[in-house]
Amino acid sequence: MAALSPQLKQATGVLAERGEGVHIHGADGRRYLDFTAGIGVTSTGHCHPVVVRAAQEQVGTLIHGQYTTVMHRPLLALTERLGEVLPSGLDSLFYMNSGSEAVEAAVRLARHATGRQNIVAFHGGFHGRTMGAGALTTSATKFRAGIGPMMPGVVIAPFPTAYRYGWPQQQAVEFALDELDYLLTTVSSPQDTAAFIVEPVLGEGGYVPADAAFLRGLRERADRHGILLILDEVQTGVGRTGRFWGHEHFWAPEDGRRLADVLITAKGLASGFPLSAIAAPRELMAKARPGSQGGTYGGNAVACAAALATLDVIRDEKLVENAAEQGTRLLGGLREVAGSHPSVGDVRGLGLMCASEFAGPDSRPDPATAARAQQEAAARGLLLLTCGPLGNTVRMIPPLIVTAEQVDEALGIWAEAVTVAVA
Ligand code: PMP
Predict the structure, then answer these.
(1) Cross-strand bridge partners of residue 279
(2) Please, which residues bridge with residue 397 across strands?
(3) What are the pLDDT digits (tens) for 32-67?
(4) Which domains are delineated in the chain?
(5) Which of 69, 118, 180, 377 has the greatest count of CB atoms below 10 A from its CB?
(6) What is the Å distance from ligand 1's center to 271 Cα?
(7) Nearest ligand 1 atom to alpha carbon 103
């Protein structure tokens, strides 16, 4: 009899029979508050009726067109619609299925456009598990150990993780930018450096928000040296952080030019259907050599229809605003819990991307307590995920439709789970 691979590490032990809104109904007859959202994917909640209807209608019309073979209407409509929400000037799109594929597409584009090879990624970043995206991923060695050699031409620079260093934020930013300059002088000269790739909030790496001065520093260096800036908004995009794009917390159009040369989106874009995209200015996108990008399922018609419906729901139900409001409530509640539990060393977040890092008195990571807290929460009906280099951070990423009552319910469970976990 066939069974799933033994390497599968499942976070909750729940067999999901059905999803509805913020809840998963388990085969055990219990209803769970799903604060994982399928790793930040089910942005409009499980099976939102508008998304379900759009997908069902599309299934009866055209399931798969394959857009390098025939064009289809959902793809054209989605492209037009994304044009309304993307930073101005990122007016050319290309679609794939997963975040990793989109990251790889961005790397190909950057190499083609600049004629340079090296990509600078930042320590703690997660960009995927393929051999290219995996080479850019340093959120934990489990994604790399025994797997390499991976894609060459990758240089890792520090990210301003102030808590980890035990420094004020400004010092962490200055250090990160100084080290980047040093790397551009000693390891990867600007003439060899095609792009920087960065997340507005380190996701798998522990929910560490970037910083306005840091991102401004990257943009300045990119401009100075003709290096492209790739923003990986796979986890932070589409309303997750309480702005449509995560980087908008750190960058206003009035600040001058656009922050990203290439923006990557996936996860929440289609409420659970596999869809990702890269967006770039047309003249830049034109530098990818014909046929160098693509994939059989990319821009699938049902996924595009679901994405259009997702964008409608996000606009009509004001979900970006809701993410900001509920995110503030959630973060405040997590801080209160941390206030009475010294084993929670830090609480961080932006919008509905919030986390509690478990650490000993010397800030030493404490993955065991984090895992216990996660399990105790699941036992009380709240599904959560860990993240961070050693899994010592417990994150909360509910669907963007979450209500204040559901946030409070989750916080009540969390307070109990932490109390039991540290006992
Ligand atoms: N980039 C970021 C920032 C991510 O969080 C992830 C997934 N966690 C990826 C890329 C990879 O996406 P996928 O798993 O769809 O390949």
Answers:
(1) 93, 263
(2) none
(3) 999 999 999 999 999 999 999 999 999 999 999 999
(4) 16-34+318-422 (3.90.1150.10), 52-316 (3.40.640.10)
(5) 377
(6) 15
(7) 10
